[in-house]
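User: Predict the complex.
Assistant: Input components as received:
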Amino acid sequence: MVTKQEILALIGPELQKIEAVLKNNFQSYVPFINQVSQYILFAGGKRLRPLLMILSTRLCGSKTTEQSYRLSVLFEYLHAATLLHDDVVDEARFRRGRQAAHHLWGNQAVILVGDFLYSRAIRIAVEEGNMDILDVISRTTTLMSEGEVLQLLNLDNVELTEEDYYEVIYRKTAVLISAACEVGAIHANRDGWQRESLKQYGKFLGYAFQITDDLLDYTGVKAETGKDIGNDFKEGKVTLPFILALEEAQPEDRQKLLFLIKKKGAVSKADFDEACKLIEKYDGFSRTREKAALFIKKALEELGKFEPSPTRELLEKLTHFVLIRKN
Amino acid sequence: MVTKQEILALIGPELQKIEAVLKNNFQSYVPFINQVSQYILFAGGKRLRPLLMILSTRLCGSKTTEQSYRLSVLFEYLHAATLLHDDVVDEARFRRGRQAAHHLWGNQAVILVGDFLYSRAIRIAVEEGNMDILDVISRTTTLMSEGEVLQLLNLDNVELTEEDYYEVIYRKTAVLISAACEVGAIHANRDGWQRESLKQYGKFLGYAFQITDDLLDYTGVKAETGKDIGNDFKEGKVTLPFILALEEAQPEDRQKLLFLIKKKGAVSKADFDEACKLIEKYDGFSRTREKAALFIKKALEELGKFEPSPTRELLEKLTHFVLIRKN
């Protein structure tokens, strides 16, 4: 079994380079923008998206250069921009164990700094001067922004189907991870099956990643995840464990689950514990874990199409790790 | 003297084509996004930015095609996106005589639909496939988002200088109008002095446009502007009439002006009238009008570098009209 320490040791050199580019490359004319951006950018993010772009380029047999790292951070900017807008929209109190940015600087500033980071990301893609990359990025951001709206509209829809849920997490998470991997292939000048495989790989990994995230909102520990547990539930946000349990639940348990999630802001610790017990009763958590495992399997199949290499092995370990991560 | 009716008759055919493209070209997979977008896009906007792009292309001697109109609407999307985020940030109640979108759908939805419109604008630029255009657009949006933050930070700065003010309105308004004109030239394959002149023309026109807008916030009539009068003043937003009056004011009047604008939410009708009288006393309004006229003069000088043509004449009329507009 791969451990977090092992992964971190393997990706350490890459992460250092990504951090360096993030630190050096980021400058706004407005010091306040730097302050808010740095708060969100240097809050212990995993740099998963830049890392995946870099490893994807390398998986295609191409060397990564300074330019590759400069390009890779656009995915962190895009991610940070969506986190900022998300937190305002979700009214989240915590992000990665610290106060959400809008609690420190107000919604207004945070909306605008999100806009800035988004512009900055597009600017990096333009500076790269590759129209295929811009095509991927602009499709991705359109899908993502539609996804955010869908998620907001679905907030009161407690009858969300498994299929609806996949549509939401595709746009919320999978499409950006998929874009990072696809852009890695484009950056390596691979426009054929490698580009397609990496796009698919990223998508499946993204699904697994978000499903695990949603599971941790039920079964995680705040000290590890850095987020309030049960936050989604208290917002009435329906995710896979709930959906899978609801499908199987007896009428009485079904009514109970629906009643509890509709309480939203009024959900007590006891309510949440009761919901967890009901979800557990119908194997909602274990079946969610199985679904995530299925996506991991599909992701690994895509990696398997590439020649064995240390990069492939590293990506495989990273992919396995998504399932067992605690934050 | 050019009249609004005359201008509208002259630009009518262009406006119709722009409206048609806006109506047909706009589709999100999410009906709610269409609803919010249409509310802001079809709220009686002047289509100034798409129109300027089209006329700039034509001023360069190039024919405009369906593709030109498709490209032009990206400037309306960008403009609408900033209006949506602005209204949330400003907590505005009215926009173009109707309730601001966030009062109908909530801040959350409006932030996200703004993000969508922004993505859509970038997507149109990518579909055009011209890296120079993308370069202009991505620089522009970065400057604009920084400008929005600057404006927010300056809200409590009642000692804003005339120079600071120009910096704010450059980023808030002039840079996008400038970009629309510059892109018009690029679209006509003019990369030399025409591109530079149209960029400058748009900038000067943008300054004049925003100065007039800020003047109308003092001297306008709600039935004509569709906005609350004195809104900026009540937010403590310092604009040119106030700055120019403050520079000249006797110590006592100066203190009075500063006292009144700092009251913000507590500003009464009588307070606002008193501020207007003081600004009038130091010729704040007439001197603001003179500054706008100076920028109009500079804008016309740029147009004068082009050969005389019906398009140049039309642009000159439009440019003059900015000074006398009532909304």
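The radius of gyration of chain A is 20 Å.
Let me know if you want any component modeled separately.
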